[in-house]
């Protein structure tokens, strides 16, 4: 069986999409109490998806009712699992997405303009992170800088010998995980960098992988609220370049594909 280390954080919940009954499988996984809550504090419940509402109404509906519309597909399967794995992050994303949608609708209505599915830059950023996000956790300023400046050789080739002792990568984008169900080298995440002081890293690295995920969830929820403003705050990263995540990247020539490992845009994503 193909190893998929990007799914390690989901080990408690099940890794395979149960194509026959997505909603039923999720309802069996769902906590009876103490589970995730919406952006407005309502206990979340998985329900069969009805008519397509559009993205804005979808987020507002989840925030206000706690009902998570779910279709029988891998995309919605991974979305629901992200609510279980990263409940604080998903709550903040839903809260901000719903607030942005309603704020924009109010502004359009006051101007007598038709309501639609228009987006602010913040809402674009929230959507990109929700769909395609990852967190790059490291104690190495050199690795953080290499990622932010698109120095792929420094990051993935010269940096691979001490990768495991300095770096963890967590994927939280549900569309990203769906893409990786049939992995392609072109798949990139939109990544947030968490650069830790050495003493904090020693503590973090000593936790189990599942407890590390909980700390990432807590930190990312805070980071989003304080820092995220535009998609350019997120750093592109070719996911299958992560050492140990793809057999082909053991060959240095893997990183010589300019269509995947591209030159940077000259801007660094924010880190903390």
Explain what this protein looks like in three dimensions.
The structure is a single chain. The protein folds into 2 domains: 5-123, no CATH class; 127-256, no CATH class. Mean pLDDT is 90; it is low at 267-272. The protein has helices at 22-29, 55-65, 74-85, 87-110, 121-132, 141-148, 152-157, 163-166, 174-179, 198-205, 209-227; strands at residues 45-48, 67-70, 133-138, 167-171, 188-195, 235-238. The protein is α/β, with parallel strands linked by helices.
**Oligomeric state as shown:** single chain
- Fraction of helical residues: 40-55%
Order of helices and strands: HEHEHHHEHHHEHEHHE
For the sheet with most strands, the description reads: 4 strands, mixed
Radius of gyration: 19 Å
**H/I helix tally:** 11
The geometry reads as globular
Low-confidence stretches at least 5 residues in length (pLDDT < 50)? 267-272
- For the record, the count of structural domains works out to 2
If strands are numbered along the chain, what order do they take across the biggest sheet? 4-3-5-6
Strand content: 5-15%
Class from secondary-structure proportions: alpha/beta
Strand tally? 6
**Cα end-to-end separation:** 38 Å
Provide the residue-averaged pLDDT: 90
List the helices and strands and how they pair.
Elements: H1 22-29, E1 45-48, H2 55-65, E2 67-70, H3 74-85, H4 87-110, H5 121-132, E3 133-138, H6 141-148, H7 152-157, H8 163-166, E4 167-171, H9 174-179, E5 188-195, H10 198-205, H11 209-227, E6 235-238
Parallel strand pairs: 1-2, 3-5
Antiparallel strand pairs: 3-4, 5-6
Helix pairs in contact: 2-4, 3-4, 4-5, 4-11
